[in-house]
Amino acid sequence: MINLYEVSETNHMIESENLDVRTITLGISLLDCISDSLDRLCDNIYSKITAYAKDLVRVGDQIEAEFGFPVVNKRVAITPVSIIGASSCHTTADYVRIAETLDRAAHDIGVNFIGGYSALVSKDMTPGEELFIRSIPEALERTERVCSSVVAGSSKTGINMDVVRLMGDIIVETAHRTKEDDSIGCAKLVVLCNAPDDNPFMAGAFLGVTEGDCVINVGVSGPGVVRHALTQAHGLNFKELCDVIKKTAFKITRIGQLAAERASQELHVPFGIVDLSLAPTPAVGDSIADILQEMGLESAGAPGTTAALAMLNDQVKKGGVMAASCVGGLSGAFIPVSEDRAMIEAAAEGAITIEKLEAMTCVCSVGLDMIAIPGDTGAATISGIIADEMAIGMVNGKTTAVRIIPVEGKNVGDFAHFGGLLGDAPVMPVNRKDCSEFVNRGGRIPAPIHSFKN
Amino acid sequence: MKRAVITVVGKDSVGIIARICSYLADRGINILDISQTIVGGYFNMMMIIDATPIDDSFASVARDIKKLGVELGMDIHCQKEEIFESMHRI
Fold it and tell me: What are the tens digits of pLDDT across the range B45-69?
């Protein structure tokens, strides 16, 4: 039988170390909503989402009450809208109507984000998909809860540089349209390479077309728990340090598995995956950068950061895999700047730069995440940053992403304030050397030779 | 049998266990095991209960017990045993 020590350990993790289930994300396929009439499509979308997800928030709250751990977010991910809207949308305004329908559905079921205002264009794009991408800035301006993503590359297809170039413009326009709120629209827009179909985390969540009608995917968290465990690990060698992380990751992941099973049972929806990600929040102590410091670095960004992060990421997976029946999504350590207090401090004092963050994305999930850059950064430079990140994902066969915010009217030294889980970010300097001739070439960077595995 | 764990942490005072036990008895909930320690004047108790009779209304009972804790000035939680089993047993 369970003993007092074990109960105290679990409850200490919840109460003092920010252990939580970060998100229960209900994936809903909208393929059967497709219609050539926009009115009918929007009605179908609203009806299906509100019917399938009507109990999501109640069940999340019930799980919280039954087990005593917070279920921070309840969210919905849908089939990419560029596919759903292809036969009925003829203008960008048509796509924006779908975004507004999604926003209304999200509001009415009480979820804070709905993901899937997305396009899968890693190889090429149809005219409809281009139209969809051009609708993103207005969609993000006119909605509050809709998250958008564009998959611009993969290890199998290479990098669609036409999309990468276009996304530079789209990000700049989104920043401009939401300038009153520190360009927050860009915090809900991510460009991905090798995007998983079952990612429960926003802003990149969507339900891939290979998925079923409805599925529960769960993202756990717990950087604070790992950090606390490492406070007891000073002086240990790497092997012993790895064991501490693995054991802790196992315990954290078991909570995610439990929440996923319970949500699946209560909602009568199949359980998909547990995403083994360490996702920080702006709360004190709930930080990946704190973990790196606990390992022996003065600050995130110090020499050794990439090695420490690689080790952390690998041990989290090794500990978590055995704790969950199915693992998927992004699964790794996230390094968003604005959502991690110690990372914000490191960026504000110049200890960490975009180039170091880029190097770190080679060894962890996901990419350049929640980074504020000067508002006058050109679209071509943003496209260049995206291209670099896509290349890392393509060559290394991993998911990478760029969620970067050119904060209009702000410059290096200023702070952008997004609020809530999105946090605050110091505006970081960007390399101003011109890359426009490169990104404007057009076409596609072919897949690397090691992608031909058949 | 569905089991749950009630934990009580806070400054020791008279009648804590009595209040919780009478709440449970009123609802026909049987107590299976109690262990407690007092460290530095702080009361730390764990009670394992048979939660079968309240299985359908567990979330609301857990919320009630939390409120009882607020009245007593203690930190009281009632959680399904699976959370601890999941985390600490393979």
Answer: 999 999 998 888 899 999 999 999 9
When CB atoms are compared, the residue of A9, A66, A255 closest to B86 is A255
Q: Are residues A57 and A99 in the same domain?
A: yes
Calculate mean pLDDT across residues A378-405.
97
Closest-CA distance of chain A to residue B46, Å: 6
> Residue A115: enclosing H or E segment and its boundaries?
strand A114-120
3-state helix, strand, coil in chain B (%, to 5): 45, 35, 20
CA distance A188 to A405: 10
Structure confidence by residue, pLDDT tens digits, A124-166 = 999 999 999 999 999 999 999 999 999 999 999 999 999 999 9
Say if the Cβ atoms of A6 and B48 lie within 8 Å. Answer: no
- Model confidence, pTM: 0.94
* Distance of alpha carbon A398 from alpha carbon A166, whole angstroms: 23
Whether A91 contacts B85, CB under 8 Å: no
Instruction: Test B37 with A4 for CB contact under 8 angstroms.
Output: yes
Does one domain contain both A182 and A236? Answer: no
Q: Are residues A167 and A237 in the same domain?
A: no
Question: What pLDDT, on a 0 to 100 scale, did the predictor assign at position A65?
Answer: 94
Distance CA A300, CA A352 (A): 6
Chain A residues with CB under 8 Å of a chain B CB are: 1-4, 6-11, 61-62, 65-69, 251, 254-255, 257-258
CA distance A385 to A358: 9
Q: Residue B84 is nearest to which of A6, A65, A66, comparing CB atoms?
A: A6
Residues A340 and A385 in one domain: yes
Note whether A371 and A239 are same-domain residues. Answer: yes
Domains contained in chain A, number: 2
Say if residue A262 is in the same domain as residue A180: no
Last residue of a domain, one of A159, A193, A227: A193
Examine the pLDDT at A182 and tell me if it is beyond 90.
yes
Q: What is the CATH number of the domain that holds A173?
A: 3.20.70.20
In a domain, residue A202? The reply is: no
Q: What's the whole-number mean pLDDT along residues A371-383?
A: 97
Domain range summary for chain B, segments of one domain joined by +:
3-88
**Residue A295: which domain range?**
214-451
DSSP-assigned states of every residue in A9-72: HHHHHHHHS---EEEEEEEE--GGG--SSHHHHHHHHHHHHHHHTTTHHHHHHHHHHHH---EE
Does 3.20.80.10 match the CATH number of domain B3-88?
no
